[in-house]
Design a protein that fits this description.
single chain; alpha/beta; Rossmann fold; 6-stranded parallel sheet; 10 helices; HAD-SF_hydro_IA
C-alpha cells in the first residue's frame, strides 16, 4: 500500500447533509418536487453532469442556475470560515497515514477553488500531497479519470492505492481506475453492487484506520 485517495464531500466533511438541507429550503420556496431524490442522483459527480440531471428531471426551462446560486449562498453562509463539520475520525486517520509515511490525495468532483478553500479553512490542507478536482479532468465520476490523475500525480500505481468514498459513482470510479475502494456510507446506503465493487464497507473513518492497520501491508 502506497497511498490513500479521499473523496471530499461526505468523506472528509459532512457537507452533503448541508447541501441536501439547503436544497430543501430552495425547493420548498419554489415548489420543486422530489429534491432529495434528485440530490442523491447527483452524489459524486461534477457540476456539469449535475446540471444535466436537473434538466432531465425538471425540463430544459428549469431555472437551475438561479436556484443553484440561492442554494450555494445558503450553503456558504453556513459553512464558511471553518464552520463546515468534519467527518468523525478524519484528522486521526490523516495523522495515522502521515506517521506511516503513506501518501494522501483528494479526488473531489467539486471545483478546485472551493475544495482548496474548505480544506484550508478546516485546517486539513497540509495533510494532502495532491489535490485533483472535477474541473481538472475531462470526464466526471463514475469514469476513472480523476482517480487515475490522482495516482499519476502521486507517482503510484492504482493497484497500490486505496480510495475512500461514500457515493456509488465514486466507488465505481475508483474500481474502474484499478484501485482498492473502501466505502464509508453517508447519504447513500450500500447496495449489492457496492458490496461487490468495494474491498470493504465500513461505518466510519475510525474503522478505516483499523482496517488499514490490520489488513494493508505498507510497502
Amino acid at each position: 500500500m502506497k497511498a490513500v485517495v479521499f473523496d471530499m464531500d461526505g468523506v472528509i466533511f459532512d457537507s452533503e447533509t448541508l447541501v441536501f438541507r439547503m436544497w430543501k429550503v430552495v425547493a420548498e420556496k419554489y415548489g420543486v418536487a422530489d429534491i432529495e431524490e434528485t440530490c442523491r442522483a447527483c452524489l459524486g459527480i461534477n457540476a456539469t453532469v449535475t446540471r444535466e440531471i436537473f434538466f432531465e428531471r425538471y425540463g430544459q426551462d428549469f431555472p437551475y442556475d438561479k436556484y443553484k446560486k440561492e442554494m450555494s449562498d445558503l450553503f456558504h453562509a453556513n459553512a464558511a470560515g471553518g464552520k463546515l463539520p468534519k467527518k468523525p475520525g478524519i484528522r486521526e486517520l490523516l495523522e495515522y497515514l502521515r506517521r506511516e509515511n503513506i501518501k494522501t490525495a483528494v479526488a473531489s468532483s467539486t471545483r478546485r477553488d472551493l475544495v482548496t478553500r474548505e480544506l484550508e479553512e478546516g485546517g486539513l490542507l497540509s495533510y494532502f500531497d495532491e489535490i485533483v478536482c472535477g474541473d481538472m479532468v475531462s470526464r466526471s465520476k463514475p469514469e476513472p479519470d480523476i482517480y487515475l490523475e490522482a495516482c499519476r500525480r502521486l507517482q503510484e500505481r492504482p493497484e497500490d492505492c486505496y480510495a475512500i468514498e461514500d457515493s456509488y459513482n465514486g466507488i465505481r470510479s475508483a474500481k474502474r481506475a484499478g484501485m482498492h475502494p473502501i466505502m464509508v456510507p453517508d447519504q447513500a446506503a450500500p447496495t449489492e453492487e457496492m458490496e461487490e465493487l468495494a474491498d470493504s464497507i465500513l461505518p466510519s473513518l475510525h474503522e478505516v484506520q483499523q482496517y488499514i492497520d490490520k489488513n494493508c501491508k505498507k510497502i
